[in-house]
Amino acid sequence: MLCGLSQNQQVISVGSFFPTSFIRAIRFLEKHWSLLCKDVRTGTVDASITDPSVREAVMEILKPDPKLADFIEAECTKDSWKGIITRLWPNAKYVNVTITGTMSQYIPTLDYYSNSLPLVSTLYAASECSFGINLNLFCKPSEVAYTLIPTMGYFEFLPNQGIDGVVNSISMPKTLNKEEQQQLVDLADVKIGQDYELVVTTYSGLYRYRVGDVLRVAGYKNNAPQFNFLCRENVVLSIDADHTNEVELQNAMRNASANLFPFDARVTEYTSYVNNATVPSHYVLFWELSVNGSTPIPPSVFEDCCLTIEESLNFFYRQGRAYEKSIGPLEIRVVEIGTFDKLMDYCVSLGASMSQYKTPLCVKFEPLIDLLNSRVVSSYFSPMCPKWVPGYRKWNNTN
C-alpha cells in the first residue's frame, strides 16, 4: 500500500485475485492512512515493519514527498470514501479481480470504492491448476466467459444432474465412481447451454479430480469452447428436504438487499449456518452492513428482509416452513463492522491463504460460529410463513 501511494501516478490498475482480499486492503487504508501519510511525508518506513529486507527494498523507491502526503490526507479526511480508488490513483483504468459466481455480491462495494471502474476477471484458476483465461476483458461481470487452455491440464466434464442445472447433493466426493467415469465428456464434445462439473487431470498427479465447480458452455472462440462459472457444486444449507445451494442463496440475498436501498444501506458481507439448537431448526444469516443514510433502519425492514429471503427459496424450503413446520423462521443477525475481517484473520491463522481467501457462504466450524455470534448487535426473525402452493414445485422464485 505504501509503495502504491508513493507512486500513485504510475498505478494503472488495482486489484487482487479475489475481491475479499482487495476490499480488505481498502479497509486497511481506511484505518491506517495517517501512518502511511507520515511515511510518504518523511520518506521513511514505520517502525512496525521489522523485516530488514522489506525495509531496504521499500526505502530504495521511497522519497520524502510532503505535497503528495498533503494530497493523500485531504482525500482520506473527506466525509465519504466513495471513489477513493480513482481519487488516490487517478490513472487507474480498471479493477483486476475475479467477480464471477457468488463473488458478484461484492460488485456494489467495488463500484462504491472505485467510482464504477471496469471490473476485469482475467483468469480462471484454482489451487489444483490454472484452467483458462477471459478473452473479452471489459465485458460485464455477468457475461464473463473463460476459454479453457488444453495445455494447462486434461479437462473432462461431468454432465450436471442437479435441478435447474445446479447440483443439489449435500457433499460430493472428489473421486468419480465407475458410472460417473462413463458419463465424462471431453473438452471438444461439450454442448452450448449445457451445465457440467469440471474434472481435471494435472501434471502434478491429480487424476480425474472433481474441482467442484459447475460451468455452463457459453459459446466458442474459434473451435475452443468458452464457459461461464455458475457456482460451487455443494449445497450450502439443508435441514429437511430443502437443499439450498449458493446460487439460490445469492439470488435471495439480492432480492432482500433491495429493502435496504431507501436507507442508503447495503450488505457488505454475509454468511450463514443452520441452527440446530432450536426446534425446529432454522437458517441463520450473519450480515455486516454499510449504512450511509442518516435515518435508522426500523426492525420491520429487517423482518421484511427475512421474509423476502424465504419467499425466494425453493419449493421444498417453503413447504417445510409453511406446511410441514419442519423448518423454523429464518433469522438475520447483524454483526459489528469489521467482523468479517476478524473471520478472515482467524481462517488465515489456521492456514488459509490470504490471497485465495473467500468468505465462506456457510460456516459449520464451531469456533467460526462462536466468533460471529460474539459480535452480533441485533437479531430479527421472519414475521410470517412464506407463500407455498401445494403441488407446485417452482425451484427458484427468481427464475
UniProtKB/TrEMBL annotation:
* Pfam family, any one: GH3_C
Q: GH3 C-terminal domain: from which residue to which, for each copy?
A: 248-366
Signal sequence bounds: none
A GO term from the CC aspect:
cytoplasm
A GO molecular-function term, please?
indole-3-acetic acid amido synthetase activity
Keywords tagged on the record: Ligase
Tree of life domain: Eukaryota
Task: Using the record's annotation, list all stretches that form the GH3 middle domain.
Answer: 146-232
Q: Does the keyword Lipid biosynthesis apply?
A: no
Keyword Transferase part of the UniProt annotation: no
Which InterPro entries does the record associate with it? GH3, GH3_C, GH3_M
Member of which family? Answer: Belongs to the IAA-amido conjugating enzyme family.
What protein does this entry describe?
Indole-3-acetic acid-amido synthetase GH3.1
Q: What organism, scientifically named, is this protein from? A: Capsicum baccatum (Peruvian pepper)
